[in-house]
Amino acid sequence: MAYQGYNPYGYGQPQENQVNPEVQNFFSQVDKDQSGRINSSELQQALINGKGQQFSDQACSLMISMFDVDRSGTIDVYEFEKLFNYINQWLSCFKSYDRDSSGAIEEAELGQAFSQMGFRFSPQFVQFLIGVNDPNRREIAVDQFIVLCIKMHRFTEAFRQRDTELQGVISIGFEDFLRIALACAN
């Protein structure tokens, strides 16, 4: 699965009776305070990566923010259904790259994943990406993979907007650089 072209926000909000019953059930289990909305802490309690650990704060906050249409810091069942489908697509993608089924993507697997997504990164840059996510290991878990792919997509789109001649090189002012870095990192 390539990340390009995927619209995580979906198309209009479905009618209440159109929410998948499996999603509705999972939403009810995740919504610990029964508020009808899920925050990143509740989501984090429900998601486990391939290493048996909860998804990171960063991953949960990032995913909530992607689907939080009203910017309340929480998502309702309709937004959750989109998030649920989005996570399942990333899990499927992750599993296809985790060839040894270790629950993590090692350096070579990550390099192959990015190559299949259309990126041409040097082995040193792939090492750097892994080190940024987990300096003590040579692998990344699914939540780290999702965050990394989202950020790579955001930075790529920002770069493409400035690479009007499709040269693979841009000149950028410091404030524009900071604007991109701060906007894409969250």
Please, could you describe this protein's structure?
By secondary structure, the protein is mainly α. Helices cover 55% and strands 2% of the residues. The chain is built from 8 helices and 2 strands. The protein is globular and about 50 Å long. It starts with 20 loop residues before the first helix and ends with a helix.
| Spatial sequence of strands, sheet with the most strands | 1-2
Low-pLDDT stretches are 1-16
**Quantity of strands, as a count:** 2
SSE order:
HHHHEHHEHH
What structural class do you assign from the helix and strand content?
mainly alpha
Our Rg estimate from Cα atoms comes to 18 Å
From the spread of the alpha carbons, the general shape counts as globular
* Relative strand content: under 5%
Mean pLDDT: 84
Largest sheet: 2 strands, antiparallel
N-to-C terminal Cα separation, in Å? 23 Å
DSSP helix fraction: 55-70%
Brief characterization of the structure:
By secondary structure, this protein is an all-alpha fold. Helix content is 55%, strand content 2%. The protein has 8 helices and 2 strands; from the N terminus they run H-H-H-H-E-H-H-E-H-H.
How are the elements arranged and paired?
Elements: H1 21-30, H2 40-46, H3 57-67, H4 77-97, E1 105-106, H5 107-116, H6 123-133, E2 139-140, H7 142-162, H8 174-185
Antiparallel strand pairs: 1-2
Helix pairs in contact: 2-3, 3-4, 3-7, 5-6, 7-8
